[in-house]
Amino acid sequence: MIDVAVYNREGDQVDLLQVDEAVLGSTVRHPLLKQAIVMYQANKRLGTAATKGRSEVQGSTRKLYRQKGTGNARVGNVRTPIRVGGGTTFAKKARDFGKDMPRKQRRLARDSALLAKLQTGGVIIVDELAFETPKTKDFARVLANLKIDRSCLVTVPQVDMNIYKSARNLPRVDVMVVGDLNAGVICNKQKVLFTKEAFMTLLNRNQN
C-alpha cells in the first residue's frame, strides 16, 4: 500500500488515502513505459520538411552544351544538384512519423507512469479545486500552498473552464481531464495534481 495525503487549498492535510499498487499494475513496466513515451513524442512530429529533387525543380532537361570539344568540364542539364538553382541531392520528403500501440498497452503504460510518480512523491491530491470565476492569482496561491513550484499537470474529473482559464497563463502548468491521461503527459511533468474526485475516478475505472 502507498499512503497518499489529501490536502485542502490552504496546504493542510485533511485526509489520507491508501492506494494498492495492484490497482496500477503492481510494478512499473519500464520497457512498456519507454515505448509509450517514444510513441507520444513521435506523434508530435509534423514531418512536413520537404525539398525539391532534380526532377521537381524548374528548368529544361536539355544538355547545356556538347560533351566534347568545348574545353569545359562535361555537364548535364540545369537541374543537376551541383549547379546553383538545381535540385537537392537525396531530397527530403514529407512523411508520417506516427506510431501506434494497442489500447491495453497504452493503459498499462499510463498506470506504470502514475505508479512511478506515486512511488517518488510526485502525486499531490487536493480535496477540491473549484473557482466561481477564472482567477489566475487564486490558482497560483493554491499551487504555492501545496508547495508546487515546478511543472505541474492538473487533473480534474470533467471539463471546468474556470480552472482551465485560471491556469492557462501559468508557465509549465497544464490542465487535463482524467479520462485523457496518458503516460506521455504524466512523465513530462514534475508534479501531478489530482482533485480527490478525479483520483478516485481513475482508481475505480482500473478496478472495474
- The CATH architecture assignment of the largest domain turns out to be 3-Layer(aba) Sandwich
Q: Could you describe the largest sheet, including whether it forms a barrel?
A: 6 strands, mixed
Helix and strand element order = EEHHEHEHEHEH
Mean pLDDT: 88
What would you give as the CATH superfamily of the largest domain?
Ribosomal protein L4/L1
Look at the helices and sheets and give the structural class.
alpha/beta
Helical residues, percent: 25-40%
**What number of structural domains do the residues give?**
2
User: Beta-sheet strand percentage?
Assistant: 15-25%
How does the overall form come out from the CA principal axes? Answer: elongated
CATH class group of the largest domain: Alpha Beta
DSSP strand tally: 6
CATH topology title of the largest domain: Ribosomal Protein L4, Chain: A
Which residues form runs of ≥5 with pLDDT under 50? none
